[in-house]
Amino acid sequence: MKKLVLALIASVAILLVPAMAQDKKLKIGATTYGLNAEFMQIWSAALKQHPAVKSGEVDLTVFDGRYDALVQQEQFNTMITQKFDAIIFVPMDVEAGAAAVQAAHDAGIPVVGSNARVNSDLLTSYVGSNDVEAGELEAKAVLDKMGCKGNLVILEGPIGQSGQIQRLEGNEKALKACPDVKVLEKQTANWSRAEAQTLMENWLTSHPGQINGVIGQNDEMALGAIEAIKAANMKLSDFAIAGVDGVTDAINSVKRGEMASILQDANAQAQGALDVAIKAAKKDYKPESPIWTQYPDMKWADGAEKDYLVPWTPVTAENADKLLESRK
After folding, report:
1. Tens digit of pLDDT for each residue in 151-166?
2. What is the number of structural domains in the chain?
3. Does residue 183 share a domain with residue 84?
4. Where in this chain does the entry annotate a coiled-coil region (predicted)?
5. What's the pLDDT tens digit per position in 168-218?
6. 139 and 101, same structural domain?
7. What is the pTM of this model?
8. Residue 188 is part of which domain span?
9. What is the DSSP letter of 312?
10. How are strands ordered across the β-sheet holding 181-188?
11. Which domain CATH number covers 77?
12. What are the residues facing 114 on neighbouring strands?
């Protein structure tokens, strides 16, 4: 009887070994440029809602890069030392982030870019949106309201981040079609509503009655400009204002007719990037996020595409309530 029990225990142990091996959690880290503003908070929350995270297939760690490329480099070092299976990277700086990608590549850890670009050929893939297109769309919304004449100001993202570089390219592309429009000021407000409000207050003082339009390279900065205009007791209807991202306050502002905005789908970018990262670490993986059905033009291609581009959605009075409902 004793021998039979031992034999049964041995058999169960043999069966459990491959099962335990299959159940091994993947360790995946995501370093974001910063988590102070709503957009990256939505992006990070979407990662945590991914089916592979909720089921326990993936052990996910999200790092706050605190708007500092050196902090992100240290976070990469931590993930390399702890032998993470894959890394998702939302870089603060298009150039400085390349060294971190190189270090992970040298350690045999795949890196998937998301939301912001890094100047490296070593990424497994990139899952984001076309920022040149966003810059052109938002500038066109401002210029159309201005009737292609007058003066405007541009609130830029952090200098050296891909969103700032590419959205400015799109801004300038749209401006070429309106040669009579003059850019009075162009300065970074670092994606910050508070910084943008201060800048706009200064510009309203230094260019009294001359500013007709505001291009905010993200919604937070456009909203900061709106606060400055309100604080100066000026009429918002006298200004053409646009931003990018489709954050909650911007959607409500669009509903009130105060600004234009373009939704950047943080959920699709984050969950798409995680699917690609899992695939890079686990070759037989099939995508689990519903975003591939939501955007059929983004072909999964077995996770091997170099770029997966999530389309933009203009925020309108007609779709605003639906977009707000999706945030709940």
Report:
1. 999 999 999 999 999 9
2. 2
3. no
4. none
5. 999 999 999 999 999 999 999 999 999 999 999 999 999 999 999 999 999
6. no
7. 0.90
8. 131-263
9. P
10. 181-188, 150-156, 213-216, 240-242
11. 3.40.50.2300
12. 127
